[in-house]
Amino acid sequence: MTARMAKGKKQYDDSMHGINFAYGGSGMFSTFGPLIDPVHLQIKQFSQMIESGFLSKDLIAESMVLFVVCGNDYTAYGDKHPNDQGILDFVPSVASKIDGSLKAFQALGVKKISITKMLPYGCYPKITSKVNYISCNASENARTILHNKLITDYVTAFKELHPDIEVMMLDFQQAFELSFQGHYNTDDLLFSDNLGFQRRVQLRPCCEGIRVL
């Protein structure tokens, strides 16, 4: 159930099977317009449901938060900055916001959190379409490497401060690599340390996202 669908109901019940606060295209900062709530406003909606009694503290303690950050902040940054100038300086500010969100969940009584690492950004169809999908962009993937390292560091520090909270990292980066390696022999697909393809591959995306103006 979405947060909007929950409005008007007095209390959560098991038939709802969880609540989704996410907005397509959202990020830690404002991304693609005022109709897309950034994460801190989504957490505010979550907090208001607790304060109103719609979600009980016991339910929150028993439940798990799935916290997904997929790179919309970096796409929005690229739209405003030609050639992504300064992008690696922007990554730490995104990671810091994510750390702040973890602390906000802890303050609300959450005891279980799953948080995602980013997929290799330079392998997104938006990027690979520029070279007919035959290779990933290693320089674009540099932000993924930095982002995931910073998130890992923040999560490690958070777990040390809050050993009573279970935090799991969903490693989309590794899943992506393993998925491709399962389709190709090592002679056909080799990943370098910067996640750039060293040789051509033939997989093509099924589809690409579009922006509705």
UniProtKB/TrEMBL annotation:
Keywords: Hydrolase, Lipid metabolism
Lineage: Eukaryota, Viridiplantae, Streptophyta, Embryophyta, Tracheophyta
Designated name of the protein: Uncharacterized protein
Gene Ontology terms describing biological process: lipid metabolic process
Keyword Lipid metabolism: yes
GO molecular function: hydrolase activity, acting on ester bonds
InterPro entries in the cross-refs: GDSL (IPR001087), SGNH_hydro_sf (IPR036514)
Family: Belongs to the 'GDSL' lipolytic enzyme family.
Pfam families: Lipase_GDSL
